[in-house]
Amino acid sequence: MNEIICPNCKKAFKVDEAGFADIVKQVRDHQFTEELQNRLNLAAKEKDSAVKLAEANVRYSLQEQLAKKDKELTELKAQSDLALSEKLNKKEAEIILLKAKIDNVEVEKKLAVNEAVQKVTKERDNLANDLKTNELEKQNLENSLKQQFSTELQNKDAIIKYKDDEIARVKDMKLKLSTKMLGETLEQHCETEFNKLRATAFQKAYFEKDNDSKSGSKGDFIYRETDEAGNEIISIMFEMKNEGDETATKKRNEDFLKELDKDRTEKKCEYAVLVSLLEAESEFYNTGIVDVSHKYSKTYVVRPQFFIPIITLLRNAAMNSMQYKSELALVRSQNIDITNFEEKMNKFKDGFAKNYDLASRKFKDAIEGIDKTIKELQKTKDALLSSENNLRLANEKTEDLTIKKLTHGNPTMKAKFEDLSDKTKLTNN
Predict the structure, then answer these.
(1) What pLDDT is attached to residue 353?
(2) 12-15 and 2-5 strand pairing
(3) Rounded Cα gap, residues 357 and 360, in angstroms
(4) What is the Cα–Cα distance from 56 to 62, expressed in whole angstroms?
(5) Which of the residues in the chain have pLDDT under 50?
């Protein structure tokens, strides 16, 4: 229905499509007739003005010529009647010619009027044809839009019915599945997504089910990755949780974080990630990757679509920290080298002290034997010889203690001694 406001009383009333179209047609016909009449009136006025102007111009011109001729006739009469007679004949001929021209002007005026009328008539006919064409095109467009709108409504109804049937089917399927089955389905989804990229992005990664339940619990999956030297780059404990729309007891994500953190610690994983469809309406968990490290260290909650991105993010961060881990391993290696050097020094000191102590005791025995009796001289001699031998051994060990032997198998100390030697040479120079 269309609403129309009366221009006089300013009241609104409604008409159907047929009535509205009829009113529009009447208005357009009236406008066309009025416009055509205005153009005809204008053409008639222009015709009258042109005729009157032409008549006035002709009259004025004839009057001037007649006045001039009358003057010439007067002058001619004064000169000669014969000449005047000839001139009068000539002037009469000219007058006849002028009258013929006036008649021609009238004919041309009529032709111009007829041409103008024909032109206006042709324009009217063209406007009428254009109006009929526009009406036909409008009608065709309206029919086309109605048909299209009807088709879209039918398609929309079919789509809505299909969606309703699909929603009913999914709900029915969820009602038939247990929470455990839904969880297993989510696990299979994540495992499939990982396996799609395993051959290209995770060639050296370990991603398998956690089957170790010695501690009384276990996660769902463990992800580990090492570098060429066998150093661990990253490790993640995964837990997947889901539940049906009609499950009687609704679970929260937080209900599983404590157990997940325990599994992460027991399995010596660096990170813990809960892949969850629980609390589907929660804006907090629907933002993407949620960091819950303020409650449980290095723990995240993600939706299934962020399963691969969380692995990539944590992995890239771990790759960046590998340089610092390598430097830490080098420092630890240097500490071990220094410890080995100290052990060699202590071993030498112990051996030297033992030999020195033995030699001291032998000297003491010898001195005591000389003081006691001369008979003990041989014994003292033997003791001296024995002590001399021990001292010789001690001296040999001292001489055998070279920088080369002390730094053997110890690249750190070798480098330090070489650096010290180079500095000594520079100082001497």
Answers:
(1) 60
(2) antiparallel
(3) 5
(4) 10
(5) 174-181, 245-247
Alpha carbons 349 and 345: distance in angstroms, whole number: 6
**What secondary structure does DSSP assign to 108-177, as a single string?**
HHHHHHHHHHHHHHHHHHHHHHHHHHHHHHHHHHHHHHHHHHHHHHHHHHHHHHHHHHHHHHHHHHHHHS
pLDDT at 176: 44
Other C-beta atoms closer than 10 Å to the C-beta of 116 total 17
Report residue 8 as tokens.
Answer: 């006089």
- Written as six digits, the tokens of 46 are 């222009």
Q: Tell me how crowded residue 294 is: count the other CB atoms within 10 A of its CB.
A: 7
pLDDT at 303: 92
CB atoms within 10 A of CB 405: 11
Helix, strand, coil proportions of the chain in percent (round to 5)? 75, 10, 15
Tens digit of pLDDT for each residue in 259-314?
Answer: 999 999 999 999 999 999 898 888 899 988 999 999 999 999 999 999 999 999 99
The DSSP code sequence of 61-115 is HHHHHHHHHHHHHHHHHHH-HHHHHHHHHHHHHHHHHHHHHHHHHHHHHHHHHHH
Tokens of 310: 């969380």
pLDDT of residue 182: 52
